[in-house]
Amino acid sequence: MPETSVAHFYDDLADDYHLIYSDWDASIRRQGGALDALIGQDRAAVLDCSCGIGTQAIGLALRGHRVTGSDLSTRAAARAAHEAARRGLSLRTAAADMRRLPFPDGRFDTVVCADNSLPHLLTEQDVHAALAEMRRVLRPEGLLLVSTRHYDDLLRDRPTSTPPQVHRNVDCAEGEERTVTFQLWHWHDDGERYDLEHFQLHPAGGEWRVQVRRTTYWALGRDRLAGLAAEAGFVDPEWRMPQETGFFQPLLVARAGEWVS
C-alpha cells in the first residue's frame, strides 16, 4: 500500500479514535502511569514520535514530564495538542515521519513509540531508519520504549479477525453511546505482513453507521525487532510484558548507546 495510506488512515480516524475506549481518560491515566514507572525520573524530556490523538503523550504530561508529540497524521497531532490544552497541559506537537524526525541530536531523555505504530513500516530498511532517528534524538543512555502487538503469538496462529468490542462511551454530547469495533486481517503471501480493515459501527437514527478504514502492518517478532534496535545503536534491549508493566502491549525497552564515529 502507498506510504500516504497510513497518514490517511489516521487522519480519517482522528475524530473517532477515542471511541475505541470505554473511558479514554481512564486509559490516558493508566497508560501514562505505566510508562512513567519505566521512565523512572521526574520531568523527563519525552518525545512521543507516534503520538496519535495523545493517549500516551497526555498521560505522561499529567505525570509532570515535558512531552513533545509527533505523528505522521496532521489531524491526529493537532487533536493531541487540542486535547492537552483542554486539560490545562502543554504539549507541543508536529506532523512528522518517524524516519525523519525534525528535532536536534540528543534532545530527549526518552522516546516513546507506542500503540503498534512502528510495524506500519514494512521493510527492515524503514524500521532501521526510524530506530536510528529515535537513537539520534536521544541523549546517550536515553530510554527507548516501543510497544507492539503480541506478534510472536499472532505469527503462529495468523488470525483473520479480532472479536467485536462493544464500548459504552459516556462522555458524548447526547449521553451514553455504544460503539462496536472489530478488525479483519488479510495476510500476505509472505506470512508476515497483513492488510487490516478496521470497522467502527455507530448507532444513528435507529440504524448502524459503518465506517471502514484500511492500512497495512508488518508482524515483527520480538527477537527480530530487538535485533533491529541493536543494529540502530541501542544497547540492552529487552521485552517487558503487560503482566509486569501494566501497559496493554509488550514493550521493547532499550538504552541509547554511545555514537560511534
Automatic annotation (TrEMBL):
MF term (GO), any: methyltransferase activity
Where are the membrane-spanning stretches? none
- InterPro entries given for it? Methyltransf_25, Methyltransf_Superfamily, SAM-dependent_MTases_sf
SUPFAM superfamilies according to UniProt: S-adenosyl-L-methionine-dependent methyltransferases
Question: What range(s) does the Methyltransferase domain occupy?
Answer: 46-142
* Any one GO BP annotation for this protein: methylation
* Enzyme Commission no: 2.1.1.-
Keywords from the UniProt entry: Methyltransferase, Transferase
Give the protein's recorded name. Class I SAM-dependent methyltransferase
